[in-house]
Amino acid sequence: MAISTLARRKASTILSSRFLYSSSKYSFSLTRGFASGSDENDVVVIGGGPGGYVAAIKAAQLGLKTTCIEKRGTLGGTCLNVGCIPSKALLHSSHMFHEAQHSFANHGVKFSSVEVDLPAMMGQKDKAVSNLTRGIEGLFKKNKVNYVKGYGKFLSPSEVSVDTLEGGNSVVKGKNIIIATGSDVKGLPGITIDEKRIVSSTGALALTEIPKKLVVIGAGYIGLEMGSVWGRLGSEVTVVEFAADIVPTMDGEVRKQFQRALEKQKMKFMLKTKVVSVDTTGDGVKLTLEPASGGDQTTLEADVVLVSAGRVPFTSGLGLDKIGVETDKAGRILVNERFASNVPGVYAIGDVIPGPMLAHKAEEDGVACVEFIAGKEGHVDYDMVPGVVYTHPEVAYVGKTEEQVKDLGVDYRVGKFPFLANSRAKAIDDAEGIVKVIAEKESDKILGVHIMSPNAGELIHEAVLALQYGASSEDIARTCHAHPTMSEALKEAAMATYDKPIHM
């Protein structure tokens, strides 16, 4: 008999952690009273990215008069225009090319030669972006969201001045204003991004030729994904990382396997290494490096350098100081559990507040924030937000890492299952990876799941749902999974957690 009842009933606080700022001094009414007028909105959203446009649509669906202000001129924010979507398009296209070069013959598909048509590849990426941005505009029209193209800044807690892209200016009034302006690339001292030889992720998505040598500064999600794209297309990729490990949020055991997988793809890593300076006076780029702890300097040459050292909240020019909105040392807006700032009527969501800087987290923030404004209840548990690195194999995870569980002093069990023992993975000749399940020892409640495999980003959601409902590893193990599927590896890992797997 499964012990999910015990797992669900146990008053465990292992997975409960909140990133939102909450203080009794911020106790106030959610909405403000203004003289009503035909031009006054119930909700004004500044920013049309994943958090902003979702918040605007949800507000309109709840019957609130809504306006969304976006400076880019196209909706979708960084994610859709120069982030998540175009990078995944290039990741897929470059993976197809790499498979054609290295794997097709194993499946009996042979041809004399294969080459990259980079303009066509970029064209496919641009087409996907264009179609999706137009789709969001269509959703705005469908839900009667007023869309203003321009740069907004606060005149007061209830008024936003917008310098429109057409060159004019208008004032948008709102009872409730949501800041959803996202994040920007984090710069590094002494390094000027020109988006030609020294590029951000934006420039890396628009290179006009394949660099012979690409140096990536930063071994996080973005750096590894973009390094994978150009590495598959023929670049010699070296990743320089100040820290001792790649992707610090990843489970340590999975991280090591992941790094080995990337190294087999000829990606080189220089960990515990600091970039001292960058010289662009010659034809290429020359980097001066030294150990993070200090020591002898070395040089590294590249055709293109990708600066991928993280992101910072984007609030420049909003006029937050003018209306007294409080921020922390990192520039993030401080909000309470209802996403409200210290200024009544002003809210913030997504990358401008504490928490994971992920598009899907911003979407959840947007929905919950608007629900609070509408007098309903909203909730986002940041421990249930999955993370995905879209390389090949992908790595996806949710909940706690083994290191975090150890730090909490919790007795736990670990179950693992390799894709080398998974029928579907072997059948398609793509079996590199592992599933790792971590569960509390006494209750068997799942605390974390970590997957490295093809399409791990799709497989992780069964685990997200399991954590959301307080499932035990036995719950997953006793759930029938279709055969043959990659998902069976999660079932077997769950079996290994509470008992023993069948196929290993």
Describe this structure in words.
This protein is of the alpha/beta class. Helices cover 31% and strands 23% of the residues. The chain contains 15 helices and 21 strands. It has helices spanning 4-9, 50-61, 77-82, 84-102, 118-143, 201-204, 221-232, 252-264, 320-323, 359-373, 402-408, 423-427, 456-468, 473-477, 488-498, and strands at residues 40-46, 66-70, 146-156, 159-164, 169-179, 183-185, 198-199, 213-217, 236-240, 268-270, 273-279, 285-291, 298-302, 304-307, 311-313, 346-348, 387-389, 394-399, 412-418, 434-440, 446-453. Helix 2 packs parallel to helix 10, helix 4 runs antiparallel to helix 5 (118-143) and helix 4 runs parallel beside helix 7 (221-232). The two termini are 23 Å apart. Mean pLDDT is 93; it is low at 1-38. Residues 385-494 form the Pyridine nucleotide-disulphide oxidoreductase dimerisation domain.
Average pLDDT works out at 93
* Unreliable stretches covering 5 or more consecutive residues: 1-38
Structural class call reads alpha/beta
Instruction: Work out the number of β strands.
Output: 21
Specify the helix fraction band: 25-40%
Q: What radius of gyration results from the CA coordinates? A: 24 Å
Strand content: 15-25%
Number of helices: 15
Morphology call: globular
Report, as a whole number of angstroms, the end-to-end distance.
Answer: 23 Å
> How are strands sequenced across the largest beta sheet?
1-2-3-4-5
Characterize the main sheet. 5 strands, mixed, barrel
Catalytic activity: N(6)-[(R)-dihydrolipoyl]-L-lysyl-[protein] + NAD(+) = N(6)-[(R)-lipoyl]-L-lysyl-[protein] + NADH + H(+)
Protein name: Dihydrolipoyl dehydrogenase
Pfam families: Pyr_redox_2, Pyr_redox_dim
Cofactor: FAD
